[in-house]
Amino acid sequence: MKTLRLDDPDSQDDLQTLNKLISSTRKIVVLTGAGISRNAGIPDFRSSSGLYKQKYSNGTINCRELFDVSIYRDESTIRLFNEFMQNMYYQKVKCAHPTKTHQFIKYLNSHKKLMRCYTQNIDGLERRLGMRTEFDQLNDWNHIDVVQLHGDLNTLKCSRCFKKFKWNEIYVNQKGAKEDAGFLIACPSCMEEYKKRQKEGKRCCQSSIGIIRPNIVLYGEEHPYGEILAKNLSKDIIRNPKLFLIFGTSLKVNGVKNLVRKLCRRIHRNVPDGKVAIINNAKICQSVWDTYIDYQIVCDCDDWCDYVESCVPRLSQEPKQQKKRCVKGSKKNSKNEKTNSIKLQKWPEHECKGKRKARQLQNPDALENERTKDSTRDRDCKRIKREIMVL
Ligand SMILES: [Zn+2]
Question: What segment(s) does the record annotate as region Disordered (predicted)?
Fold first, then answer.
């Protein structure tokens, strides 16, 4: 694993290799972590100012514990958890804007270069750029751009019936956001069912009423759609991604480590010239990732995205001809890799042999002149193609 820096002259050749790969392939898989949302004002976890270094509720609880499933051990800690997440949503996530890195991933998607983006983030900022994220509908895999591995803080769900709610459906409409902070709210849907059974004289049990919780996956908690996720991840891996870009994560979470190892193994075994790069402010552990990752680029994710866009300027422009959207993973979308680079020029189409033969019989001299023109044009085309490939 080589360590690269944007301002290091010795890193430039390898950085250019990545630029060329981004320009030429449409088989890119992305993994993102909290580092890409830090510039949007959403705190990360493990940096020096990250949440794991902070305490909550006058120092009575470490923020790290608030993201662990053990928070559900008793009612008092559940209240703290709800209050913390409510503040996080209203004060950070709701008012945040996507960063340069989110925009870069959106560009990859617009140019049909992105096979899939997996994110550990719960802020859902990709959706604000029009990318398709559906945490609860992983069955519809072909229509998902961004897979939210740890859920989505923009919605709430019932712990019992799993019905989803918007924050304002639960906290603002019923009692008001701030006054309710930390209250345990019974699921309106479960309550309705409970009352209905009560009226009908059927057996009722209070434990059948769920409580409302943020729609996120905590550490130590099983992903509610884990099986579907694993099955579809395998499908993505089998499609042989050519470039795997990892943004803003220190790769410390076990499930994510496995995902990264699987993708890296596949790329290095099956894809000639395939590359894996991590872009992060802090270095990752060299001994653990040395054989899996080709490059670690030590810089702010947004700075690297700016750099790539300056080297591949067409990337930041919306494609001119918006063809009918291909379904991810469909035959149309996985056509010949040679057609995958961003098209800067329409190549002349060659006349078929049959037509040319017929015209030769009618006017042999005119055709000879055309042949000379064609060979000059072909040489020009090849030259332009070469220039584009070294963008
Ligand atoms: Zn419910």
Answer: 346-379
